[in-house]
Structures are given as structure tokens and as C-alpha cells.
Specification:
Blueprint (H helix, E strand, L loop, with lengths): L8 H5 L7 E4 L12 E4 L2 H9 L9 H11 L4 E2 L1 H20 L20 H4 L5 H9 L14
């Protein structure tokens, strides 16, 4: 399935016009207080992060957001765009698999997306793939370990 504007999911991950932005929050936003610096990442940044999670390990979104904020000199990473970008990365990886890519060549998004995540309902391919991949790698159901290193 293609996203809007004729771009594939993979095109959206690799869009060279997207750059990370760190902005100062003028008012409270979700779990972030006014005055804090918030990173708005890119799909490519999320993709790169996920590719560094070792096989059999997982990282939840809280860990991912903290790691990226620290890497980019921010206090927080935007939870809304992180969720959107994680979906883009996940759909792109599945799209690549459908085109014949090896499982070892795509971003292993199942290491971040938990089995009961609401994101699974949005995927064009459902949740079975996530469940199968987590099981194959021995990742406990909805109990991700903190990622020690990427």
C-alpha cells in the first residue's frame, strides 16, 4: 500500500528534504513542560535507530525518545511525530519485504513495536507479523528490555 502523494513508504523514509528540528516549547505539550527543548526527528533517524537494536533485544518508545533527545541535544523527543515516523518506517520495511528484501536488510521495527501496541491496528499488514518476529527472536511479549547499546 502506498501513502499519499504517489510516494512509497520507502520514499518517505528516505526523503532528503526532511531534517531534524529542535525547538523550544512555548507551552506544555503532552509530558513535556514549557521551556524544554523538543526534537522533531525524521523517519530516517527512527529507521537508523531501529537498525542498531541487536537481534533478540527490544527498546520501547520511551527509551527510543530519550536516546534520540540526548543524541540531538534536546530534553525530549516529540511523541506524536515519533509514532507517525515509526509507522512510516514499519510500513517501509514491510513494503521492502514484499518486494523480496531479506529480513536482515530491513529495519526490524518489531523490536520497538510491542504486540499490543495500538500501532498494530494501523498497519496495512496487521499485527501477526510483529507477533511472529518477536517470537522468532525470543523477545518477551510486551515486556521489552531496555536497550543497552546500539
Amino acid at each position: 500500500m502506498k501513502p499519499g502523494k504517489g510516494k512509497t513508504w520507502t520514499d518517505k523514509v528516505n526523503d532528503p528534504t526532511k531534517e531534524p528540528i529542535v525547538k523550544k516549547l512555548e507551552k506544555d505539550f503532552t509530558d513535556m513542560p514549557a521551556g524544554g527543548k523538543m526534537l522533531i526527528a525524521t523517519p530516517k533517524i527512527i529507521d537508523d535507530y531501529i537498525r542498531h537494536i541487536p537481534k533478540g533485544k527490544s527498546a520501547n518508545l520511551t527509551v527510543l525518545r530519550k536516546d534520540l533527545a540526548a543524541e540531538y541535544g534536546a530534553d525530549y523527543t516529540c511523541p506524536v511525530t515519533t509514532g507517525i515516523f515509526l509507522r512510516i518506517v514499519s510500513e517501509a520495511a514491510y513494503e521492502q519485504l514484499q518486494k523480496g528484501a531479506s529480513i536482515n536488510r530491513v529495519a526490524p521495527f518489531w523490536r520497538v513495536v510491542e504486540e499490543k501496541s495500538s500501532l498494530n491496528k494501523k498497519f496495512s499488514f496487521g499485527s501477526d507479523f510483529v507477533v511472529q518476529q518477536r517470537k522468532k527472536e525470543g523477545i518477551a511479549a510486551d515486556n521489552p528490555k531496555k536497550k543497552s547499546s546500539r
